[in-house]
Task: structure prediction
Amino acid sequence: MSNSYRRREFLSKLGVGAAALPFVAGLPAVMGAQPAGPLKRKNKQRVIVMFSPNGVVQDQYWPETEGADFELTPILQPLADFKDKMLLLHGVSNKVGGDGDSHMRGMSCLLTGAELLPGNIQGGSNTPAGWASDISVDQELKNFLQSQPTTATRFGSLEFGVEIRNEADPWTRMVYAGKNRPIAPTQDPYSMFTRMYGRSKDDDLLRSVLDDVKDQLKSVGSRVGKEAQEMMQEHQSFVSEMERDLREAAQQKLDLPAPNLEDGVSLRQSNMPKISRMQIDLLVNGFANNMNRVATLQYSNSVGQVRMKWLGINEPHHQLSHDPDMKEDSQKKLTKINQWFAGEMHYLLKRLAETKEPGTDESLLDNTLVIWTNELGKGNSHTLQNIPMLLVGSAAGFKMGRYLKLGNVAHNRLWMTLTSAFGHELESFGVKNLCDGGKLNLA
Amino acid sequence: MKIAKPHLDRRIRWIALSATVVAVIALGSTTFGQMPPADFKRGQAIYEQSCAGCHGEKAEGVEGVYDSPLTGDLPVKELSKYVDQTMPEGAPEDCAGADAELVTAYLYQAFYSRTAQRRNNPPDIEFSRRTVGQYQNSVRDIVKAFRGAPRIGEKRGFRTRYNSTREIWKGKPAIERLEPTIDFDFGDKSPDPEKLKDPKQFSISFKGGLIIKETGTYEFIVSSKNGFSLSCNGNDQLIDNRVNSTQQEEFRAKMRFDEGEVYPVALTMFKYNDETANIKLEWVKPSGIREVIPERSVSSGRFHPMVVLKTKFPADDSSIGYARGTSISDQWDSATTRAAMETMNFFERELDSILADKYGRIRRRRSRATEEERAAKDHQRHLKFATDFVKAAFGRELDEQEKQFFVDRQFEIASNDLAAVKRTMLLTLKSPQFLYLTCFESDVDSYDIANRLSIVLWDSIPDKELTKLAAKGKLKDREQVSDAAWEMLYNARTRQKLSEFFYHWLEMEKASHASKDEDIYPGFGQELIQSLRDSIDMSLNEIVWSDEPDFRKLLLFDEIYIDQRMAAFYGIEKTEKERFQKVSFESDRRSGILTHPYLMTGLAYYKNTSPIHRGVFVAKSLLGRSLKPPPIDVEPLEEEFDPSMTTRERVTHQTKEINCSGCHSVINPLGFSLENYDAVGRFRDTEKDKPIDSKTVYLSPTSEEVVFDGAKDLANYLVKSPEAHRNFIEKMFEHFVKQPIYAFGPDVLDQMQVKFEQSNFNVQNLIVEIAIVAATHDANFPDDKKNNDE
Result:
């Protein structure tokens, strides 16, 4: 059951409707009126969960030195610019257990912290399973932010995808609106464009051919009889009207104009680098225009088999990730793949950092937390321990610029800490007994 | 019977004398209603002497004296009576008796009648755009230019593959066979304990093409407790329910389909540790019928996705009886734009597959070509596609200027090949060359003729063969055009267009929405309506596509197709297994379409028959008489008005007013002759315990009075009536050409009527004749002179 639901229920028992929420004075912090604990909360808070699959090469990812003086390992190297804004957490584990193989649970329990339902989908091992049994943390936060007029936005959240296998199953879905309710990410930047700006990207293409259309009507219209000529002129006037409508639609009031996406980029694997950048541009623009406060950016899927030929890698990613540690060539390629993901994250952070909050001197990154995670700790062992958790940005009020080893804590507690940082206190998230010990101290 | 009988009896006796005479006249005349030339001259002389002063030399009217032209609907006899008694004004005795008859006959033939009006004021061929239907067909046929027309084939049912594991595509299938329908409940057992040994896990894949006979939105309903996914027409995830942790057992998804097309569908299910297994695929058709998708609607062939336009177009102007594209509007312009975008997006989705199939694959693995060589080849493929797209849409080869404008220029402007191809598609579909049906050059060339033939016969663009004929210069004389038209006739699009003609001509939409009183007609419902529709379609198609496609058979056939539902409802014995069986059905009382229950059902009310609807239908649709709308809005009398009255008595009573009787003297008798068929088309002898009276007298436009006793007499009159023939030709012409027949010359209808009769009323001949006239009316054929000399 969703915690936000429980919260609403509690309030309604008090006789207070959700709309009256900001006016409820004197309620404790659990009601979201005041920040909890020692964290200093920002006025505006956003979160992005970025996902890439198949675990990481351990010694290429994890630094040796704890604390502020941690080394930038090869995989983290592309993010050097943001070292002081990083919080890298070692020792966070997905301990959910239950039905489903590691990849399935790794993916569908990642953001839900809840068990998979019994089902008919069989992985490489363990029992078959179905969808996750509860809401994911991004959606929990979205619901919380949407419930208050000061933080509510047009969409609440937007789910971006890049090169995800075109089937719906526990390996391809990490975002859940609730039990049995997976949310599919949008893989096509042009579809996302239409959704965000209420007009199709193809409208721009259309607008750019309308001059040619008018030329044709003019030149052909001169070759027909009088009656027909009148019809052609009428037709031209319709085309002019359409041109004007399209121009006006394209100039709608936005704090930041819509990104100028390249036309005709088809959804194929070789275009993954282009599509990644298009999606990031859209994501950042959505934040700048306050369309949403929550976003996910999912690269491929659990067991993802992308062949990154633009890196000179012809083998599929998951297949490589099964190769033993001694197979140096494979480990090099896996490192390269993760460096590519880090590079995309760098582009995302850079775009957030160089985009100003409308009307202020702050950057979007000042009010955003980006979390880059994975469904596995390590590919060839399929462990769900030490899941990569790289947090960048200032939105949560965590103390950044550090590498922390947390031992072996359930990731449920990290998600409780996250919601709390957004002012949303929960007694538990996902599997209840995995929340023992409560929030983590990241201050 | 108090009201009408004495009057009627007198008339019947009086008319019986002349009935045989009329029949002889009607049979003997080909060009209908013509006066002997000598009489014509005498009538003309009288007119010029006594009438022209007030009415004008050509009956056009004289300002300030008698402004209106002399045109109208009155039969000659009525008009003559009027002239005899009232004209010339102030001195009616100056023109009476035989003179009045002569001058009236002259006036009627020269100016007054509808035929005369149209001959004297011939309409022009109107500048037209593609109609909505023509636009939609054309777009679908552009797809076929790249994909080929779907081959439906003979085999029906789903290509089905059973696998002994949960993964359907792993290894060899255990069973491969055709399944007629998808409706299985295996319980906890295996579908085949021998070949699929493990009842706990197996998978099944069903594939086929949905044969669509009715345009509209279809809703799929899949019932299963297991994992499954349904894909249709390129939509891979119409329903993706492979994960079954939801306990939901019924899943729905909607799709729009177009009549005459075939859409690929695939349903894959698997069982894995589930307790039981079941799968059922149903649809709800646009008519509202829910059924397991029947075997007859599934081709076992392989099909490509077809573009489905969701854009709603504003309706074409149908105010003069047929849809035509003679006006444009803002809504039309934006609809064509949205449809162009939909088409572009469809091709964008299918492009990789089309490029590979049509212009060759680009091998990436084990290819020695360099990346640059591959890119160059890919660029060439896109260029070819763009060029072929414009060619298909315009139905012609492109000249240099066109190729430069529609193709080359777009590749220069766009940032990549896909964007360029998209620009070309949009520009083509938005161009006047595609949207308008006219040749923009001064001379009509072979491509124009090809385009006209295809728009007339198919409501669409020329196909590859036809364009090839034009390119080879094989549409250069009437014989060649005729050969091409005959070739084109036997095409699914022509069949569809002819079916649409019947649908329109026979006002079938009335029956398709009919609802009837459940107490009086228990068991009548949407399913039966569908059966009746199929039945009448089968008869019509059988006749017009037979070796003797004789128009008269449409009105005279005496065997109908019945299925189980019709058999049960109408009490007919059905012996054969096939869904439809042809049987003799009350052949002594029924006659062709006239008495087919589908028509009778549509032309009737909820409880009762409607002689007025039936009469209007026969008068307008079958005899081509022009009836003015009722002068006042009249609600039909309720049965409660006088429960003892029969329907005929009630109608007679209500229409006896002088304001009504003008038209109803034509309408009522035609309608009454069908009173033996109740509101669902069952034969009846009595109504309210009174015998049905289906004897009537019909007054023709030439004032001949004909006696009918029931539907068979009416049908026999219609098949011999030149009026009915001319009407059929004209309606057919308008439906196929979407222009008035008189726009193509004053004598076209007369000539066609002669040919129609000479060919034993051959409907196929007629269609080809219409296509030739429409395609070549202004062509300069080299052999024209020779033909004229002959």
User: Anything to note?
Assistant: Chain B touches chain A through 57 residues (CB under 8 Å). The longest helix of chain B spans residues 330-359. The radius of gyration of chain B is 31 Å.
